[in-house]
């Protein structure tokens, strides 16, 4: 997979706000890039369509999930429940797209977009796009 552009159509209250685009770092984090690309396109029959940003922390990040339920239950990734990817990319900063996780080797389906510089998250979350 090339470093493709990932697109999120973003509504608020059913009204479109616009489209958020990211350049995937598929050359650095191929498994994670393939996972989020498939979840975004829905090519596996499930994904982010009709999902929401279920967690927004002002001055920090917006977190999204592949789930029809606001609390994130019923979610999945194309890689199974959890998977490993390297942590070679650094510099968490505004506009960086990363995988949310529950510790080492627990990447899955939740992602977050940084809205501020968050270097304390380096070596904890896979950075997959900007």
UniProtKB/TrEMBL annotation:
Q: What class of enzyme is it?
A: isomerase
EC identifiers of the protein: 5.2.1.8
Give the catalysed reaction(s), semicolon-separated: [protein]-peptidylproline (omega=180) = [protein]-peptidylproline (omega=0)
* BP GO annotations: protein folding
Q: What GO molecular function terms would the record report?
A: cyclosporin A binding; peptidyl-prolyl cis-trans isomerase activity
| Any one Gene Ontology cellular component term annotated for this protein | cytoplasm
**Taking every annotated instance into account, which residue ranges of this chain make up the domain PPIase cyclophilin-type?**
7-130
Keyword check for Isomerase:
yes
User: Which ranges does the record mark as transmembrane?
Assistant: none
Family annotation (Gene3D superfamilies) = Cyclophilin-like
Please provide an example of a Pfam family that matches this protein in its UniProt record.
Pro_isomerase
What's in the keyword line of the UniProt record?
Isomerase, Rotamase
PANTHER family membership: PEPTIDYL-PROLYL CIS-TRANS ISOMERASE, PEPTIDYL-PROLYL CIS-TRANS ISOMERASE A
Please describe what this protein does: PPIases accelerate the folding of proteins. It catalyzes the cis-trans isomerization of proline imidic peptide bonds in oligopeptides.
Q: Which family does it belong to?
A: Belongs to the cyclophilin-type PPIase family.
Q: What is this protein called?
A: Peptidyl-prolyl cis-trans isomerase
Which species is the source of this protein?
A: Zalophus californianus (California sealion)
Q: Which gene encodes it?
A: LOC113930448
């Amino acid at each position: 997979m090339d470093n493709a552009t990932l697109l999120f159509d973003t509504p608020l209250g059913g009204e479109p706000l616009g489209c958020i685009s990211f350049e995937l770092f598929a050359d650095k984090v191929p498994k994670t890039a393939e996972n989020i690309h498939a979840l975004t396109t829905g090519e596996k029959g499930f994904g982010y369509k009709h999902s929401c940003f279920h967690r927004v922390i002002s001055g920090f990040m917006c977190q999204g999930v592949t789930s029809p339920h606001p609390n994130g239950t019923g979610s999945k990734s194309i890689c199974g429940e959890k998977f490993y990817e390297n942590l070679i990319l650094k510099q968490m900063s505004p506009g960086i797209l990363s995988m949310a996780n529950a510790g080492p080797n627990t990447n899955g389906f939740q992602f977050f977009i940084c809205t501020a510089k968050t270097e304390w998250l380096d070596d904890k979350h896979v950075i997959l796009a900007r």
